[in-house]
Each structure stands twice: as C-alpha cells, then as structure tokens.
Amino acid sequence: MTRALVFAYHNVGYRCLQVLLAHGVEIVAVITHDNNPTENIWFESVEKLAGLHRIPVMKPEDPNTPEFIFAIAALNADFLFSFYYRLMLKPALLAAVRQGAFNMHGSLLPKYRGRVPINWAIIKGETETGATLHEMVEKPDAGRIVDQTTVPILPNDNAHNVFQKVTLAAEITLNRALPDLINGTAQMHTQDLTKGSYFGGRKPADGVIDWRESGQNIHNLIRAVAPPYPGATTSIAGKPIIIIKSLLAPARFTHNNPGFLNVSSERCIALCGDGRMLRILEAIIDGKLVEEPQLPIMIGVGVYPLAA
Asked: How far apart are CA 87 and CA 269, in angstroms?
C-alpha cells in the first residue's frame, strides 16, 4: 500500500486529503496548523477530517527542525503532499520520503507563483486560472508540473467564487494524476519561469481604493478582496465604508468628474479615473451589510466625494 505524509490546510487541503483516502492511500500523518484567532475561519477543518479517519495529526511550529524531520523520516512514507499548508518546507524535509514531494498550487503555473494567487489573478484581470500539481523543490512553486486544470474567471466573479472553482480543479487534478504518480509513470515537464511571476502576500491596507484608477481596475480590486477577505475600503464624505460588490457600467456611459459618488433614489454610481462608472451594489456601513436599494437611505440622495 502507498504511504503518504500530508501537509494540509483550508478547503483544498480538505478535498485533496479526501482524494488520497478515496484512492486507498495510507495516510501516516497529517501535518496542519492551529487556526489564527484573528482570521475569519470560513473553510473546512483538515484536523477534523483526519480525526474522523483516526489519522495522527501534528502541528509543529517549525516543520524543518532536525528533530521533526527525523520523526517524519521514521514514518517511512512514499510520498509527501502539500495542500495549502502555509509554512515553507525545506529540501531536507522534502527528501524524507522515497518517491517525491508534491504541492497543489492555486494557479496555472508558472503564472502567479507565491502567495494568494487567486486574489492576484482577479486583481490583474485574468479570465482564467486553475490548479497545478507540481514537484516540490527548494524554490517555491518552481518544480516540474505533473498536471493542471483550468477554470474560468467570469467578469463579476469574486475571490470566493473563484476559490470554489479552484478547489474543485485541485480535486480533479489530483484524482487524475494520482494513479500515474503511484505507479511511477507520471510524465512531468519543466516550468519556463520566464512566463510567470512571483507574487507576495496581501494586507487589508492593500484593499484601499484609489479612485484615480480605471473603473475596470477598481472593479477587479473589489471582487478580489470581497468577503470572506477583508474587502475594498473607501470613505464617503469622510465616513468609512467597505465596498463588497460592484458592477461596471457599459463603456459608452462615461463622465469627466472622477472621485465622486452620485446617489439617486435608485442607484449609487461611483465615478472612476478613466471616465468609467461603477455601480455600488453592496457595502458594509457601520458594520451592517447594505444592498443597493437601501444605500440611498443610508447615505442620502446627492453627490459625495470619495476618498481612501
């Protein structure tokens, strides 16, 4: 029987662990994280899934210590899999298994290597992304590609919509690739790293809207950081709000007065830096979710300055 170590977290970790179990892989240990108490926990628990199947769970602060690597090597695993595990795994740890270490990444490598690839893909206006199973090497997200699955990013998809698609793509990719990996017949190909870039993490402050940007760029930011992420922030006449859903008006409707919000009795229209107009469909004001029909009541009919 094939034996695997699984480093996993989040929904992709949960679903990919289920794929391994469905294929009869013996999971010798699951390595995961404690949840961050300051983080919005909206995803499935890998730890609970492991407990359901009576799989030993480890949560080391640093998985790269000599002591932990020694303990891992003693488990005599064939494979190491990393599914959205958040800590870097160094070469000495990757070498502690017999048949290789493999990671599931939430983009179409070599594009969007690094952190939060789904959010970055939306911000950059991509129309597709996906999941890639690749060999783990010292450099992050740079190893040979085993398999990948593409999903569309529709014009009004937010990050949660796309994450759900990528989770399914990860499940499909692993399910398809696993038999060849186990049999030693997987055909892997080297990445051309010149065709993609590495991206870092994002902070809530990165969600502040600059109304001098184009309407498309602002719309992309709003949907890329919409809940369960922190949201895109601005202020209306000095009052802070979080915009969580928008709709870009057709290009033929333009203006020449960026940085203002025009609130009628029916609609809230933000004026962007390139002359495009953006309908505000949902926002959080004073901690409450407000939809477009209620926005004029909350804000008042009129024209208001918008600011970061």
From this structure: 42
- Cβ atoms within 10 Å of 22's Cβ, excluding its own: 12
Mean pLDDT of the chain: 95
The string of pLDDT tens digits covering residues 44-79 is: 999 999 999 999 999 999 999 999 999 999 999 999
Closest CA to 149 of 171, 121, 180: 171
Nearest alpha carbon to residue 60 among 52, 51, 70: 70
Taken in order 101, 105, 109, 114, the sign of the CA dihedral is negative
Evaluate whether 294 touches 282 at the Cβ level (below 8 Å). no
Residue 110, preceding peptide bond in cis (omega within 30° of 0):
yes
Give the other-Cβ count within 10 Å of 168's Cβ.
16
The reply to whether omega before 91 is within 30° of 0 (cis) is: no
Could you tell me if 145 and 102 are in contact, meaning their C-beta atoms sit under 8 angstroms apart?
no
Q: What confidence tier does 308 reach under pLDDT thresholds 50, 70, 90?
A: low
pLDDT tens digits for range 151-198: 999 999 999 999 999 999 999 999 999 999 999 999 999 999 999 999
Q: What tokens appear for 160 in the block?
A: 């949660």
d(CA 279, CA 294): 14
Give strand ranges (E) for the chain: 3-8, 26-31, 57-58, 79-83, 101-105, 113-114, 128-135, 145-152, 198-199, 232-236, 239-248, 260-263, 268-271, 277-285, 288-291, 302-307
In percent, the amount of the chain with pLDDT more than 70 equals: 100
Phi, psi at 268, each rounded to 5°: -120, 115
Q: Determine the pLDDT at residue 254.
A: 80
Nearest to 141 by CA among 168, 111, 118: 111
Determine the Cα–Cα distance for residues 145 and 270; give it in Å rounded to an integer: 43
